[in-house]
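Lab meeting tomorrow. Please check the following:
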Amino acid sequence: MDASSSSSISSKRNVEFQPENPCYFGLPSRVRTSRTKDNPGKKFRLCPKSMNEGPKCKFWEWLEPETPDNEVSSGKDKKEQWNLTLKICTLENQISIYKMKMEQENLVVRQELEKIKWKLFTHKVLMIALFLLFVFKK
């Protein structure tokens, strides 16, 4: 849905500026309330120059509804939050375990590679020694 078709501008006496949320021009965004049938009372943020003549930055976004600090979440919400927290902790733990396993496997592979390099070096030295022995024996 197009932003311009889903919102309307509230009266000037009800304007709130948000310097911490600037528009694309770097100006404090303006908070307005929608008066449309589709989004009645829903707040949105836009560029303060959006209704002026001249350049417009087209900054516009819906605001998430605020939850009052004194509002107590339901037991279901707390249980869902706890379950999500538990899942996150479980996943983080699994990631740590996999990282540790990968580091251990990487160490084993590096040790095996060093053994192979050493064998290759000793074989090269032996081949050179045999070649020199064969050449100088004649």
